[in-house]
Amino acid sequence: MRHLASLAILTLALLGSGCASMRVPLPLPAVLSDTSFAPAPAPVGPDQLFALSPAMRAYLDSPEFRSVLRRLGPERGLVEALYTKGELKLEYDASVTRNAAETFDARMGNCLSLVVMTAAFAKHLGLEVQYQDVMIDETWTRSASLYFASTHVNLSMGKRRTAQARTIGGEERMLTIDFLPPEDSARYNTHVIEERMIEAMFMNNRAAEALAENRLDEAYWWARAAVLHLPTYSTPYNTLGVIYQRHGDQLLAERAFKATLTLEPESTIAMHNLVPVLSKLGKKEESAALAARLATLEPTPPYHYFHKAIKALEELRYADARDLLNKEVRRAPFNHEFHFWLAIAHWRLGEAGPARDELALALDNSTTHAATERYSAKLAFLRSQTGKRQRAY
Fold first, then answer.
1. Using CA atoms, how far apart are residues 327 and 338, in angstroms rounded to an integer?
2. Reduced to 3 states, what is the DSSP secondary structure of residue 328?
3. 316 vs 47, 332, 342, 392, CA distance in Å?
4. By CB atoms within 10 Å of each CB, which of 43, 200, 229, 238 scores lowest?
């Protein structure tokens, strides 16, 4: 399963999740500090998020596209042209959140990027677009010492309803497009979110991705833009907190994480991030109390068994590593990294068949081209070693 809508960060670091539930602005601490960062290297904001590029307009005007629309209608025709027939050869890639034009040009994107591109086309065709937050568990990935939680969004589109239809409750059928497999997407509940939320998610993701590459100035301006765009959305405050923490501004980090908790009081991500900040600020009792509460809410945080497994591998305790990684796989079956390291544990134990199976699962669930290429090469090697025992991996 591959999905990525809104990123949240845990420091080590934890970057938080998806959607704000609060609609009424609350009194929040001052969390912005423009003078602490260099000016943004390029414009930030949602202005170009849904803009059609000349290449996109040319595709819409092509005889092939027009023929599909005449045959199937605008909704199903758009799905057929973009995804079903595979003419664009769109691929999933979680490494970058792109706007509509960038996604079309690259022919790849995460689920948020693909939703944005599809919405841009649909709106150009005069269709009404509705965005949904899909109620699935957060998916965790990591990059160095940053840990990312992602949520999932999809969209529905249909003929634009008239004012009369809205007034009398008339319904127009909407076609839902989801980038989960149909058998998966059908069993999850959803709730409608505004386009403003999609825009804020995009800006927060850009901040998180810049942060992962240690581009702190750029990360700050994207997170700032997300906060100002939708002040009741909790995730960008957490992202700001991680940026400040990395920048050495612990007091500002405390304010940002506490703002997250004001909007989302049960956010274990913000709690994880706030505990060490409070300790560094000398607030030992407050830090300890929050840590105790966090331990009650989340006794086994993301990657808990994974880190124990890596230590076991380093100590040549391969059976222990295998058992610990199996625990992570059971609770996060779509995390490619867990399958990869479980393959290593099996291989070290001489279990070539399970090692190949786990590496194949790592490949199936990889979310970036780099990971796909790595796992493909490893899997080819393992398959070439059928009947052999290799100590090096």
1. 10
2. helix
3. 53, 24, 14, 13
4. 43
Run of H or E residues at 108: strand 108-109
CA distance 330 to 309: 14
Q: Which residues contact 187 (CB under 8 A, 6 or more apart)?
A: none
Question: Are 236 and 6 spatial neighbours (Cβ–Cβ below 8 Å)?
Answer: no
Per-residue DSSP letters for 85-106?
S-TT--EE--S----HHHHHHH
Do the beta carbons of residue 56 and residue 121 sit within 8 Å?
A: yes
Residues 6+ apart with CB under 8 A from 117: 82, 98, 100, 103, 104, 109
| Distance separating alpha carbons of residues 368 and 366, to the nearest angstrom | 6
For the chain, list residues with pLDDT below 70.
1-28, 85-87, 160-173, 180-187, 386-393
According to DSSP, the β-strands at 108-109 and 175-177 are unpaired
Superfamily per CATH, domain 1-300: Tetratricopeptide repeat domain (1.25.40.10)
* Residue 284 to residues 189, 249, 260, 276, 298, Cα–Cα distance (Å): 41, 18, 21, 9, 20
Which tens digit of pLDDT belongs to each residue from 54-106? 999 999 999 999 999 999 999 999 988 888 766 677 887 877 899 999 999 99
3-state SS, one letter per residue, for 179-226 = CCCHHHHCCCCEEEECHHHHHHHHHHHHHHHHHHCCCHHHHHHHHHHH
- DSSP letter string over 48-66? TTTPPPHHHHHHHTSHHHH
Pick the closest to residue 95 from 222, 9, 213, 237 (CA basis).
213
Q: Which among 217, 270, 214 is positioned nearest to 239, based on CA atoms?
A: 270
Please tell me the pTM assigned to this model.
Answer: 0.84
Tell me the C-alpha distance between 234 and 31, whole Å: 12
CATH for 304-384 is: 1.25.40.10
pLDDT of residue 21: 36
CA 281 to chain centre: 31
CATH 1.25.40.10 domain span(s) along the chain: 1-300, 304-384
Write out the DSSP string of 117-160: HHHHHHHHTTEEEEEEEEEEEEEEEEETTEEEEEEEEEEEEEEP
Question: Which pLDDT score is estimated for 9?
Answer: 53
- Residue 387: the pLDDT is 54
Residue 91 pLDDT: 80
